[in-house]
Design goal:
Layout: E1 3-6, H1 13-22, E2 26-28, E3 31-33, E4 39-42, H2 53-66, E5 70-72, H3 76-85, H4 96-104, H5 108-123, E6 129-131, E7 136-138, H6 153-161, E8 164-168, E9 174-176, E10 188-191, E11 200-202, E12 205-207, E13 217-223, E14 227-232
Parallel strand pairs: 1-4, 4-5, 7-10, 10-12
Antiparallel strand pairs: 1-13, 2-3, 6-7, 8-9, 11-12, 13-14
């Protein structure tokens, strides 16, 4: 199992292309493929805030559903867009408004195709991925060892939003516990969700969300080599969006 796991893209298509090329992927017919048949993995949050959310989502749909050359597990932004496409009432805030504007600018027929593909991608993807004989777990916001392989509502909340306390930060975002600091499990956990300036490696866990959409970097973890590869973002830098761990 050789897989290149990519952090939260959030519609940053130029960074996605640059990172995959740096990893040795070649683009043909609008999608990347590796000459040595390495696979791509995505920790979720493909969309929102960035300029090309729907194009990124379509590429991942092609890789995962059509080509069977990638793995994807949804993030909280993916979940919100999924609910929006189902017709549920969701607030068009925290970045969803950019994806909705992108969607509404499409011709009606293209809207229906885009909606169908994303719903299919979401519904056919697991809440978290367990690969390489249980040695590797990919989960958007991380996962506790005792939750691995389970899909109940408590696990869903954890993998989408992290170990939330129920309280809110001043900016309205949820207060989250530092679950990785206590992790002592055998499987390697690769996740994103919480933007950090540099990949955070602690207790057999890797946070590879380096805030591409906030002007940081887009990062990948090459597995099983455990090599970190990043490219700089073209987006404006917003330093307050990054989490500093004690």
């Amino acid at each position: 199992m050789k897989i290149d796991i990519i952090g939260d893209i959030h519609g940053c298509l130029p960074e996605f292309e640059a990172l995959t090329k740096k990893l040795g992927y070649q683009w043909s017919d609008g999608i990347p493929s590796h000459p040595e048949n390495r696979l791509l993995g995505f920790v979720g949050d493909l969309t929102d805030r960035g300029p090309s959310s729907l194009k990124v989502a379509e590429i991942v749909w092609r890789l995962v559903i059509e080509q069977k050359k990638a793995f994807y597990t949804p993030g909280n932004h993916c979940n919100k867009l999924y609910r929006y496409f189902l017709g549920n009432k969701v607030q068009e805030t925290h970045g969803l408004e950019t994806t909705v504007a992108e969607f509404k600018s499409l011709p009606r027929k293209e809207q229906q195709t885009t909606k169908r593909k994303f719903i299919e991608l979401y519904e056919k993807s697991p809440l978290h991925l367990i690969v390489d004989q249980d040695k590797l777990v990919i989960a958007h916001a991380g996962i506790k060892e005792e939750f691995i392989g389970k899909t109940n509502s408590k696990v869903k909340t954890f993998v989408l939003y992290g170990d939330i306390t129920g309280e809110k930060n001043p900016d309205g975002s949820p207060v989250r516990r530092d679950w990785a600091k206590q992790y002592a499990g055998k499987p390697l956990i690769v996740y994103g969700h919480t933007p950090v300036r540099e990949p955070r490696v602690i207790n057999n866990t890797y946070n590879i969300d380096t805030g591409a959409v906030f002007g940081g970097k887009l990062t990948a973890l090459r597995y099983p080599e455990l090599e970190i590869v990043s490219v700089d973002s073209t987006m404006p830098y917003i330093g307050e969006k990054f989490k500093d761990f004690a």
